[in-house]
Amino acid sequence: MFSRLREDLASVRERDPAARSTFEVLTCYPGVHALMFHRLAHGAWRRQWFWLGRFISHVSRFFTGIEIHPGAVIGRRVFIDHGMGVVIGETAEIGDDCTIYQAVTLGGTSLYRGTKRHPTLGKGVVVGAGAKVLGGFTVGDGAKIGSNAVVVKPVPAGATAVGNPARIIDAERDAEREQKAEQMGFSAYGVTRDMDDPVSKALHGLLDHAVDTDRRLQAIVARLEASGVRLEDAAASADDFDANRLSRMVD
Fold first, then answer.
1. Fewest C-beta atoms under 10 Å: which of 44, 55, 130, 251?
2. Keywords in UniProt for this one (predicted)?
Protein backbone atom coordinates (compact mmCIF):
# COMPACT_ATOMS: atom_id res chain seq x y z
CA MET A 1 0.00 0.00 0.00
CA PHE A 2 2.83 2.40 0.86
CA SER A 3 4.58 1.68 -2.44
CA ARG A 4 1.36 2.63 -4.28
CA LEU A 5 1.16 5.81 -2.22
CA ARG A 6 4.74 6.74 -3.12
CA GLU A 7 3.92 6.20 -6.78
CA ASP A 8 0.83 8.39 -6.47
CA LEU A 9 2.78 11.21 -4.86
CA ALA A 10 5.54 11.02 -7.46
CA SER A 11 3.03 11.02 -10.35
CA VAL A 12 1.28 14.11 -8.99
CA ARG A 13 4.55 16.00 -8.66
CA GLU A 14 5.46 14.97 -12.21
CA ARG A 15 2.14 16.05 -13.77
CA ASP A 16 1.14 19.08 -11.70
CA PRO A 17 3.45 22.12 -11.92
CA ALA A 18 1.63 23.64 -8.92
CA ALA A 19 2.88 20.88 -6.61
CA ARG A 20 5.80 22.30 -4.64
CA SER A 21 6.64 19.40 -2.33
CA THR A 22 5.72 15.81 -1.61
CA PHE A 23 4.43 16.84 1.82
CA GLU A 24 2.09 19.37 0.21
CA VAL A 25 0.72 16.71 -2.16
CA LEU A 26 0.22 14.25 0.70
CA THR A 27 -1.64 16.71 2.91
CA CYS A 28 -3.46 19.02 0.51
CA TYR A 29 -4.48 17.02 -2.59
CA PRO A 30 -7.99 15.52 -2.35
CA GLY A 31 -7.35 13.26 -5.34
CA VAL A 32 -4.61 11.49 -3.42
CA HIS A 33 -6.82 11.20 -0.34
CA ALA A 34 -9.69 9.79 -2.42
CA LEU A 35 -7.44 7.07 -3.82
CA MET A 36 -6.24 6.17 -0.33
CA PHE A 37 -9.82 5.85 0.89
CA HIS A 38 -10.74 3.88 -2.24
CA ARG A 39 -8.09 1.25 -1.65
CA LEU A 40 -9.56 0.59 1.78
CA ALA A 41 -13.12 0.57 0.42
CA HIS A 42 -12.19 -1.67 -2.52
CA GLY A 43 -10.45 -4.12 -0.22
CA ALA A 44 -13.58 -4.37 1.90
CA TRP A 45 -15.74 -4.75 -1.23
CA ARG A 46 -13.63 -7.63 -2.54
CA ARG A 47 -14.08 -9.40 0.79
CA GLN A 48 -17.84 -8.91 0.37
CA TRP A 49 -18.02 -6.46 3.24
CA PHE A 50 -20.32 -4.38 1.10
CA TRP A 51 -21.71 -2.06 3.76
CA LEU A 52 -18.24 -1.23 5.08
CA GLY A 53 -16.99 -0.52 1.57
CA ARG A 54 -19.88 1.81 0.86
CA PHE A 55 -19.48 3.55 4.20
CA ILE A 56 -15.76 4.21 3.60
CA SER A 57 -16.67 5.52 0.14
CA HIS A 58 -19.30 7.78 1.68
CA VAL A 59 -16.81 9.17 4.19
CA SER A 60 -14.34 9.76 1.37
CA ARG A 61 -16.92 11.71 -0.62
CA PHE A 62 -17.67 13.87 2.42
CA PHE A 63 -14.01 14.84 2.90
CA THR A 64 -12.82 15.03 -0.73
CA GLY A 65 -15.84 15.82 -2.92
CA ILE A 66 -14.90 12.78 -5.04
CA GLU A 67 -17.29 9.82 -5.24
CA ILE A 68 -15.70 6.49 -6.18
CA HIS A 69 -17.79 3.36 -5.88
CA PRO A 70 -15.87 0.71 -3.90
CA GLY A 71 -16.40 -1.77 -6.74
CA ALA A 72 -14.47 0.34 -9.25
CA VAL A 73 -11.03 -0.91 -10.30
CA ILE A 74 -8.32 1.75 -10.41
CA GLY A 75 -4.78 1.19 -11.67
CA ARG A 76 -1.47 2.64 -10.57
CA ARG A 77 -0.35 6.27 -10.72
CA VAL A 78 -3.83 7.61 -11.46
CA PHE A 79 -4.01 11.38 -10.92
CA ILE A 80 -7.35 12.98 -10.03
CA ASP A 81 -6.59 16.68 -10.37
CA HIS A 82 -8.68 19.02 -8.17
CA GLY A 83 -11.35 16.33 -8.26
CA MET A 84 -14.42 18.12 -6.93
CA GLY A 85 -17.53 16.52 -8.42
CA VAL A 86 -15.79 13.47 -9.90
CA VAL A 87 -18.07 10.40 -9.96
CA ILE A 88 -16.73 6.93 -10.80
CA GLY A 89 -19.27 4.11 -11.06
CA GLU A 90 -19.28 0.55 -9.76
CA THR A 91 -18.08 -1.32 -12.85
CA ALA A 92 -15.68 1.38 -14.06
CA GLU A 93 -12.07 0.36 -14.71
CA ILE A 94 -9.26 2.90 -14.91
CA GLY A 95 -5.88 1.93 -16.31
CA ASP A 96 -2.44 2.96 -15.14
CA ASP A 97 -1.23 6.57 -15.52
CA CYS A 98 -4.65 8.07 -16.31
CA THR A 99 -5.41 11.71 -15.52
CA ILE A 100 -8.92 12.79 -14.53
CA TYR A 101 -9.93 16.40 -13.95
CA GLN A 102 -12.76 17.90 -11.89
CA ALA A 103 -16.47 17.19 -12.49
CA VAL A 104 -15.79 14.10 -14.62
CA THR A 105 -18.42 11.34 -14.61
CA LEU A 106 -17.64 7.74 -15.52
CA GLY A 107 -21.26 6.68 -15.51
CA GLY A 108 -23.54 3.90 -16.62
CA THR A 109 -26.50 3.77 -18.99
CA SER A 110 -27.87 0.36 -18.04
CA LEU A 111 -30.12 -0.47 -15.10
CA TYR A 112 -29.33 -4.19 -15.09
CA ARG A 113 -27.41 -5.34 -12.04
CA GLY A 114 -24.40 -7.56 -12.67
CA THR A 115 -23.65 -6.20 -16.14
CA LYS A 116 -20.75 -4.03 -17.27
CA ARG A 117 -22.45 -0.62 -17.04
CA HIS A 118 -19.52 1.78 -16.74
CA PRO A 119 -16.57 2.58 -19.02
CA THR A 120 -13.10 1.12 -19.09
CA LEU A 121 -10.23 3.58 -19.52
CA GLY A 122 -7.00 2.23 -20.99
CA LYS A 123 -3.53 3.29 -19.92
CA GLY A 124 -2.58 6.94 -20.06
CA VAL A 125 -6.06 8.28 -20.82
CA VAL A 126 -6.73 11.96 -20.09
CA VAL A 127 -10.31 13.01 -19.30
CA GLY A 128 -10.89 16.77 -19.34
CA ALA A 129 -12.89 18.78 -16.82
CA GLY A 130 -16.63 18.23 -16.92
CA ALA A 131 -16.52 15.33 -19.38
CA LYS A 132 -19.12 12.56 -19.16
CA VAL A 133 -18.16 9.06 -20.30
CA LEU A 134 -21.34 6.99 -20.20
CA GLY A 135 -21.63 3.28 -20.92
CA GLY A 136 -19.83 -0.03 -20.69
CA PHE A 137 -17.37 0.54 -23.56
CA THR A 138 -13.60 1.04 -23.76
CA VAL A 139 -11.57 4.20 -24.18
CA GLY A 140 -8.30 3.09 -25.74
CA ASP A 141 -4.79 3.62 -24.41
CA GLY A 142 -3.52 7.16 -24.68
CA ALA A 143 -6.86 8.62 -25.75
CA LYS A 144 -7.95 12.12 -24.75
CA ILE A 145 -11.46 13.25 -23.84
CA GLY A 146 -12.03 16.99 -24.24
CA SER A 147 -13.53 19.15 -21.50
CA ASN A 148 -17.34 18.91 -21.29
CA ALA A 149 -17.46 16.16 -23.91
CA VAL A 150 -20.24 13.58 -23.65
CA VAL A 151 -18.86 10.23 -24.80
CA VAL A 152 -21.31 7.40 -25.45
CA LYS A 153 -19.27 5.26 -27.88
CA PRO A 154 -15.84 3.59 -27.79
CA VAL A 155 -12.82 5.80 -28.41
CA PRO A 156 -9.86 4.28 -30.29
CA ALA A 157 -6.41 4.25 -28.76
CA GLY A 158 -4.59 7.55 -29.19
CA ALA A 159 -7.68 9.38 -30.48
CA THR A 160 -9.21 12.62 -29.22
CA ALA A 161 -12.95 12.94 -28.58
CA VAL A 162 -14.65 16.34 -28.27
CA GLY A 163 -18.17 17.76 -28.28
CA ASN A 164 -21.69 16.71 -27.29
CA PRO A 165 -22.24 14.04 -28.41
CA ALA A 166 -18.52 13.46 -28.71
CA ARG A 167 -16.97 13.02 -32.12
CA ILE A 168 -13.54 11.58 -32.86
CA ILE A 169 -11.22 14.21 -34.27
CA ASP A 170 -9.86 13.11 -37.64
CA ALA A 171 -6.50 14.87 -37.83
CA GLU A 172 -6.13 14.31 -41.57
CA ARG A 173 -9.60 15.62 -42.40
CA ASP A 174 -9.18 18.63 -40.08
CA ALA A 175 -5.89 19.50 -41.76
CA GLU A 176 -7.58 19.38 -45.17
CA ARG A 177 -10.34 21.66 -43.93
CA GLU A 178 -7.84 24.20 -42.63
CA GLN A 179 -5.87 24.13 -45.87
CA LYS A 180 -8.99 24.68 -47.98
CA ALA A 181 -10.21 27.46 -45.70
CA GLU A 182 -6.86 29.23 -46.04
CA GLN A 183 -7.08 28.96 -49.83
CA MET A 184 -10.48 30.63 -49.67
CA GLY A 185 -9.19 33.36 -47.39
CA PHE A 186 -11.56 32.31 -44.62
CA SER A 187 -10.95 30.43 -41.38
CA ALA A 188 -14.04 28.86 -39.87
CA TYR A 189 -11.96 27.51 -37.01
CA GLY A 190 -10.95 30.95 -35.86
CA VAL A 191 -14.45 31.40 -34.43
CA THR A 192 -15.89 27.95 -33.81
CA ARG A 193 -13.04 25.46 -33.63
CA ASP A 194 -14.05 22.07 -32.20
CA MET A 195 -17.45 23.28 -31.09
CA ASP A 196 -20.94 22.04 -31.87
CA ASP A 197 -22.43 25.30 -33.06
CA PRO A 198 -24.78 24.66 -36.04
CA VAL A 199 -22.93 27.26 -38.09
CA SER A 200 -19.65 25.45 -37.41
CA LYS A 201 -21.15 22.14 -38.53
CA ALA A 202 -22.50 23.72 -41.71
CA LEU A 203 -19.13 25.27 -42.52
CA HIS A 204 -17.40 21.96 -41.91
CA GLY A 205 -19.79 20.37 -44.40
CA LEU A 206 -19.08 23.07 -46.98
CA LEU A 207 -15.33 22.72 -46.56
CA ASP A 208 -15.54 18.92 -46.82
CA HIS A 209 -17.54 19.30 -50.04
CA ALA A 210 -15.02 21.77 -51.43
CA VAL A 211 -12.13 19.41 -50.67
CA ASP A 212 -13.96 16.51 -52.33
CA THR A 213 -14.79 18.65 -55.36
CA ASP A 214 -11.13 19.64 -55.75
CA ARG A 215 -10.13 15.99 -55.70
CA ARG A 216 -12.65 15.13 -58.41
CA LEU A 217 -11.54 18.04 -60.60
CA GLN A 218 -7.90 17.05 -60.25
CA ALA A 219 -8.78 13.49 -61.29
CA ILE A 220 -10.71 14.77 -64.34
CA VAL A 221 -7.85 17.07 -65.40
CA ALA A 222 -5.34 14.23 -65.01
CA ARG A 223 -7.53 11.94 -67.19
CA LEU A 224 -7.94 14.61 -69.88
CA GLU A 225 -4.22 15.35 -70.02
CA ALA A 226 -3.48 11.62 -70.17
CA SER A 227 -5.86 11.43 -73.15
CA GLY A 228 -3.94 14.17 -74.97
CA VAL A 229 -6.35 17.03 -74.32
CA ARG A 230 -4.42 20.30 -73.91
CA LEU A 231 -5.67 22.50 -71.10
CA GLU A 232 -2.97 25.17 -71.24
CA ASP A 233 -5.32 27.76 -72.75
CA ALA A 234 -8.11 27.14 -70.29
CA ALA A 235 -7.98 30.09 -67.94
CA ALA A 236 -8.89 29.38 -64.37
CA SER A 237 -12.03 31.38 -63.76
CA ALA A 238 -12.08 33.20 -60.46
CA ASP A 239 -15.00 32.16 -58.32
CA ASP A 240 -17.23 34.73 -56.69
CA PHE A 241 -16.68 33.43 -53.15
CA ASP A 242 -16.78 36.37 -50.76
CA ALA A 243 -14.72 35.33 -47.71
CA ASN A 244 -15.23 38.63 -45.94
CA ARG A 245 -19.00 38.36 -46.23
CA LEU A 246 -18.96 34.83 -44.79
CA SER A 247 -16.74 35.98 -41.92
CA ARG A 248 -19.19 38.76 -41.10
CA MET A 249 -22.09 36.27 -41.10
CA VAL A 250 -20.30 34.01 -38.60
CA ASP A 251 -19.30 36.93 -36.38
1. 251
2. Acyltransferase, Amino-acid biosynthesis, Cytoplasm, Repeat, Transferase
